[in-house]
Amino acid sequence: FWTARTSPGGHRIARFFACKSSCGLAVPLRSSTIQSNWTQKRRFGLITERMGIALLRVFCRPAGPPDYAMKGVHYDDADTLARTTVFPNFDSAIREKDVLDFGCGHGYQTIAFLQRGVKSATGVEIEPGLLASANVRAAEAGLEVTFLPQMEGSYDVIYSQNSFEHFLDPDRICSDMLAHLRPGGRIYITFGCPWLAPYGAHMGFFTRLPWVNLLCPERIVMAVRASYRSDGAKTYLECGVGKMSIKRFEETIKRTGLRIEFCRYICVRRMNFLGRIPIIRELFINRVACVLARD
Question: Terminal CA-to-CA distance of the chain, rounded, Å?
Fold first, then answer.
């Protein structure tokens, strides 16, 4: 039950039992009538909003210290291309090829590709600060690397690491990738964590509570997040979290029309057998690796 206190004249109680998530978990839906009448006395089940925020804070770091380390997001020179080892014969596949690093961030991977013997390496990044950082890094390395705010030209290989789960319009982005992929080319995709994985909410920088997006209403998570980020985000989408579940990923890839040459799901604690169990797999697949081929 979600209880909404309205005017002094009484209460309204609404039951919501629609299922929205791809894994079959129930997600409460709010009617516009009740939502417009909510006040700070909202209740989530038997727990008030204030109680919910206090409870979530128990599982969070203090607001002052640095963020929790987010493995797989922050890179250093030693493990820049660590995620590529899952792909069969990756080094030979990119050698003497024109490679695009889509969502290149600080440019670590783009530069590493050039050092692996590719013909050319181009990085694409929409965030101006990251793009500037990538250009500085390339200049320091003394390498000819091109960094762009959007895709231009055509490529033999397009590589996307830890970006797919942030795409708010994945169909459009995949369409753009396809438009810049040469015949016979390959798109390499690897990302984690998917939306319904233990840390799929991407709030790990301040809380270690797994499945926080399933255990806590979005409003409570965003209220607590505000203690660690000042960007004013009120929803997961505003945080750049695309809610990319495994089901949604598979449907998106199918719509590209490209041939799936390789696909591997890596589960929590390497219990990969869980990735073959319907519904349950959504909760335990921690990383996706996929190669799409254009014949």
Answer: 52
CB 94 within 8 A of CB 118: yes
Residue whose C-alpha is closest to residue 200's, from 215, 185, 181: 215
What is residue 68's three-state secondary structure?
coil
Contacts of 35 (CB under 8 A, 6+ apart): none
State the DSSP string of 122-162: EEE-S-HHHHHHHHHHHHHHT---EEESS--S-EEEEEEES
Q: What is the pLDDT of residue 83?
A: 79
State the virtual CA torsion across 172, 174, 178, 184 in degrees, nearest 10.
-170
* Tens of pLDDT, residues 114-125: 888 999 999 999
Dihedral of CA 117/122/126/127: which sign? positive
What is the strand order of the sheet 259-267 is part of? 146-148, 120-124, 98-102, 155-161, 181-191, 285-293, 259-267
pLDDT in tens, 192-212: 999 999 999 999 999 999 999
Owner of token pair 């909410």 = 201
**Quick one: DSSP state of residue 69?**
P
Q: What is the pTM of this model?
A: 0.82
DSSP classification of residue 66: P
Is the pLDDT at 223 greater than 50? The verdict is yes
- Which residues are CB-neighbours of 154 under 8 A, at least 6 positions away? 98, 180, 181, 182
Main-chain phi, psi angles of 135, to 5 degrees: -65, -40
Reported as a pLDDT band with limits 50, 70 and 90, residue 6 is very low
Report the distance separating Cα 11 and Cα 4, nearest Å: 7
Stretch 56-83: mean pLDDT, rounded?
76
The 10 Å Cβ neighbour count of residue 20 is 10
